[in-house]
């Protein structure tokens, strides 16, 4: 048989196949020499390497695929989701891959890059007043579902969100650190990443410390939320997080600039907030392997003015 006749196009992965398995890299300059001398290592999980550019690629494809498996949706249906940006982009990509109409509801003050990216994938956008925040966007999505305008996947209550992090993100970190991880740090938005990853890591070693980054009072950090009790994501399990650390907007934005300049790591603001928390931990411990999630890339925030023009 000739090489030409043996060629099998199905042997190549699809876009969906390359979601996940993102690199875990060591920061070289951010960790002060005295902290490194104490045996600490600071590792960044580069979720911006996913096809649509964020950690949300994982739950987006998981929620759609598993809803299909349960017979709840089928290609051609309309899906609805309230989003602060990254989940919307990921869902827009996933909907394009699998053949759905995607309607995304987003507060009007979020970065223009995110809105443009969602539209590029073919999604329809509904912008809500800044004053209503994500709470208003979530309420509107539910109302549209009640009115029969489509199905809400609901990243905030959908168990397929943390489940994919239990199945993939946690195992990847455990394997890539050789089981030596001592601390896991994640920004908290929908809480899917921290809840699912924590569950896996705690099963391997209950001593792994799970730390969540939340915004300090008055801070608006895209991707990080401190929810009112009535809107607390149903997927969140408080027992899965050992410590909550508040991050100011100025600290997160300064860290985003430092990561780019000192490490060559162009990360988003919530990822920078997680890095800030990880560095605080490194000052308190010794012989620690600290992993934080770089949930997206900095190019989604160029219009915000965080990075110098």
UniProtKB/TrEMBL annotation:
InterPro entries: Cys_synth (IPR005856), Cys_Synth/Cystath_Beta-Synth (IPR050214), CysM (IPR005858), P-phosphate_BS (IPR001216), TrpB-like_PALP (IPR001926), TrpB-like_PALP_sf (IPR036052). Residues 16-296 form the Tryptophan synthase beta chain-like PALP domain. Its cofactor is pyridoxal 5'-phosphate. Its EC number is 2.5.1.47. Keywords: Amino-acid biosynthesis, Cysteine biosynthesis, Pyridoxal phosphate, Transferase. The keyword Cell cycle does not apply. Transmembrane segments: none annotated. Belongs to the cysteine synthase/cystathionine beta-synthase family. This is Cysteine synthase.
């Amino acid at each position: 048989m000739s090489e030409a006749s043996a060629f099998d196009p199905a042997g190549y992965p699809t876009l969906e196949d390359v979601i996940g398995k993102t690199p875990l890299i060591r920061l070289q300059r951010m960790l002060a020499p005295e902290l490194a001398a104490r045996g600490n290592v600071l590792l960044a999980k580069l979720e911006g390497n996913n096809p649509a550019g964020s950690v949300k690629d994982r739950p987006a494809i998981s929620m759609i695929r598993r809803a299909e498996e349960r017979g709840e949706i089928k290609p051609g249906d309309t899906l609805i989701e309230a989003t602060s940006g990254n989940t919307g982009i990921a869902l827009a990509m996933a909907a394009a891959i699998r053949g759905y109409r995607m309607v995304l509801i987003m507060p009007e003050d979020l970065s223009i890059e995110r809105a443009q990216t969602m539209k590029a994938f073919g999604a329809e956008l509904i912008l809500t007043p800044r004053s209503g925040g994500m709470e208003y966007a979530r309420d509107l999505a539910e109302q549209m579902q009640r009115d029969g305008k489509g199905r809400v996947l609901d990243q905030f209550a959908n168990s397929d969100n943390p489940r994919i992090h239990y199945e993939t993100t946690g195992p990847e970190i455990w394997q890539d650190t050789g089981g030596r991880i001592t601390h896991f740090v994640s920004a908290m938005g929908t809480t899917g990443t921290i809840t699912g990853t924590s569950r896996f890591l705690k099963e391997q070693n209950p001593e792994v410390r799970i730390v969540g980054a939340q915004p300090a009072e008055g801070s608006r950090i895209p991707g990080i939320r401190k929810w009112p009790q009535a809107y607390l994501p149903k997927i969140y399990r408080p027992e899965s997080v050992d410590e909550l650390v508040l991050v100011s907007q100025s600290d997160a934005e300064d860290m985003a600039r430092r990561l780019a300049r000192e490490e060559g790591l162009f990360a988003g603001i919530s990822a920078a907030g997680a890095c800030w928390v990880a560095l605080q931990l490194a000052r308190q411990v010794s012989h620690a392997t600290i992993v934080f999630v770089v949930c997206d890339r900095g190019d989604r925030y160029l219009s915000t003015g965080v990075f110098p023009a």
